[in-house]
Every structure is written in structure tokens, then in C-alpha cells.
């Protein structure tokens, strides 16, 4: 651990897991970001065992730019941990005296993963429901122009489910080009 003097280590839990994967010894570092459960692996039996490239890549995707800039200006990993990361984890802000209500916003990659997961589960549910449905399913389209002047078309499925009318949006597509022709 004496060799771990790069500021990047302050953004990960100080004691990594030591595991073996496919015959390789690995340090597995767990990110300390709020709500982040990501781990970064550093293989010890390879020529780049001391490389922090993957740690940096994750750090930049998980932490705010102002925190990273302040960390770059710190003299060592201990200063980053005590004055920056520890403070952020405690109160969500670099400056303890700056008092405002802060909200935790997940990283874009976390939101994207959640959206993909929700879509997959909803897709499975709708597929199962419609394949087992014995009644008629009616389809419709609806077109409109959004406030930013983009033409959109939605495809909808309508059916009766447990005695209630159900409308399922199946897809929303932006129309690439709208051509209006007038005939007299």
C-alpha cells in the first residue's frame, strides 16, 4: 500500500479485495461514490500492475468535475481523502460551510442501466400479457409536433384487461422529414 500514492486511490475504498480470477491475482477496488457499487480490477500478474488507468476512467464517470479538479491540486492521497472525498461523502459538498439542500443525482451510466432494466422487464411483462390475451387487440397511431418543432408518431395497442380499457404505447418515432403537398 506504500506504492499507492496517486490521488485516484482516495476515490475507492482503502482496502481492496484480493481475489483470483482465471488463475490471475487481482486487486478489486470498490468505488466510494454515493450509490455507486462499481468495482475496478487491477491484475497483479501483468506488466501494468501499477497502472491506474481503469481507476481514473471510472473516477471520471462517477465523480463531479469540481471534485476531480480540487483533487488534482492536492499534494497527496491523504489530503484528497481527508479534505475532499471524506467531506463529500459526509455532506455532499466540498465546502462544509456552504449550506444548501443537495440532492443525490446518479451518474448517467447508472440511469442508463436502470432504464434498460426497466425496459427489459416491461417488455417481458407486455409480451407475456399480449401473447396470453384471448380478446382483440386494436392498434392505432397518433402524430403530433413537439414544442421544438419535431414531428413524432406513436404506435399504440388498445385492449381490455381485467374489465378496464388499457392503452399501451408500443413505440414513439421521430419522423425524419415531413413533406406537405397541396393540391388544388
- The residue-averaged pLDDT reads 77
Please state the structural category. Answer: alpha+beta
Largest sheet composition? 3 strands, antiparallel
Q: What is the global morphology? A: elongated
Helicity, as a percent range = 25-40%
Distance between the termini: 82 Å
Bin the strand percentage.
Answer: 25-35%
Q: Please tally the β strands and state the result.
A: 6
Strand order of the largest sheet: 1-2-3
Q: What is the rounded Rg?
A: 26 Å
**Unreliable spans:** 91-103
Number of helices: 4
Order of helices and strands: EEEHHHHEEE
Task: Describe the SSE topology.
Layout: E1 17-21, E2 24-30, E3 39-43, H1 53-62, H2 65-73, H3 77-91, H4 108-132, E4 138-145, E5 151-161, E6 164-174
Antiparallel strand pairs: 1-2, 2-3, 4-5, 5-6
Description:
It contains four helices and six strands; from the N terminus they run βββααααβββ. The chain has helices spanning 53-62, 65-73, 77-91, 108-132, and strands at residues 17-21, 24-30, 39-43, 138-145, 151-161, 164-174. It has a three-stranded antiparallel sheet with strand order 1-2-3. The chain has a three-stranded antiparallel sheet with strand order 4-5-6, with no helix packed on it. Strand 5 and strand 6 (164-174) form a beta hairpin. The model is unreliable at 91-103 (pLDDT under 50).
Amino acid at each position: 500500500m506504500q506504492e499507492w500514492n496517486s490521488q485516484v486511490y482516495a476515490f475507492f475504498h482503502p482496502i481492496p479485495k484480493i481475489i483470483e480470477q482465471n488463475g490471475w491475482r487481482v486487486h478489486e477496488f470498490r468505488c466510494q461514490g454515493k450509490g455507486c457499487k462499481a468495482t475496478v480490477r487491477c491484475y497483479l500478474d501483468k506488466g501494468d500492475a501499477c497502472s491506474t488507468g481503469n481507476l481514473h476512467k471510472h473516477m471520471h464517470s462517477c465523480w463531479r468535475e469540481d471534485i476531480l479538479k480540487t483533487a488534482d491540486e492536492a499534494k497527496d492521497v491523504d489530503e484528497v481523502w481527508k479534505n475532499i472525498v471524506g467531506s463529500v461523502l459526509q455532506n455532499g459538498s466540498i465546502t462544509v460551510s456552504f449550506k444548501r439542500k443537495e440532492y443525490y443525482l446518479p451518474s448517467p451510466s447508472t440511469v442508463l442501466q436502470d432504464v434498460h432494466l426497466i425496459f427489459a422487464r416491461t417488455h417481458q411483462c407486455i409480451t407475456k400479457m399480449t401473447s396470453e390475451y384471448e380478446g382483440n387487440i386494436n392498434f392505432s397511431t397518433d402524430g403530433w409536433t413537439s414544442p421544438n418543432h419535431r414531428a413524432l408518431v406513436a404506435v399504440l395497442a388498445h385492449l381490455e384487461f381485467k374489465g378496464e380499457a388499457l392503452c399501451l404505447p408500443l413505440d414513439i418515432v421521430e419522423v425524419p422529414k415531413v413533406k406537405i403537398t397541396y393540391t388544388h
